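Hi U.,

Before I forget, here's the chain from the pilot set. I'm dumping it here mostly so it's searchable later in email.
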Amino acid sequence: MPKPVGLERVIAQQDITDLCYRYAHGSDRVDDDAFLSTFWEDGGYGQVYADEPLAKIASVGGFMGKVFSCTQHLNCNILIDFIDQEHAKTEVYFQAFHLTQADLKSDDLLPLIGARRLAELSHVDGNVYEIVVGGRYLDRVARRDGIWKFKTRSLVFDYTTVRHSSALLAGEGITAFGAAKMARDKSDPSYAKA
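Structure:
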């Protein structure tokens, strides 16, 4: 089967780019329906470019919702290599900001931050941390019935930084200007009907 060309290629590239953005939205809003809708039922996380069916993905809310009070995933440099009209490989660069929940204990933070960095930060239970991750998603995407979704999605971490939170609370500094407040559920302003 030939690779897409011309307008068909442009449309396929935009569809795959939108797929990457919907994945980030579902993750940041802790919206299981939006997040899981980006994967085929026989897809999920796995080995880079694995072909065998993968186990179903766990709920995004189970981890992201309990560990972080805020996340923001930014995608850039979306490289798409079409295998044919129905399959492509992608490399998507990302930077992801995470703000830990205030009620996490050392045991909860250890897998996220690591023993060395946690000691360097002079951790006390109740501290809030900013974790910034830079990396890449290596994906296999497939089009079925005209819709592109992830068949497999693998993570490559290029760097991570962790520091005590410098976040402003609602009503402090620039947050006092009255912008809409974000939420990690469907009460977020992005779900408002026009």
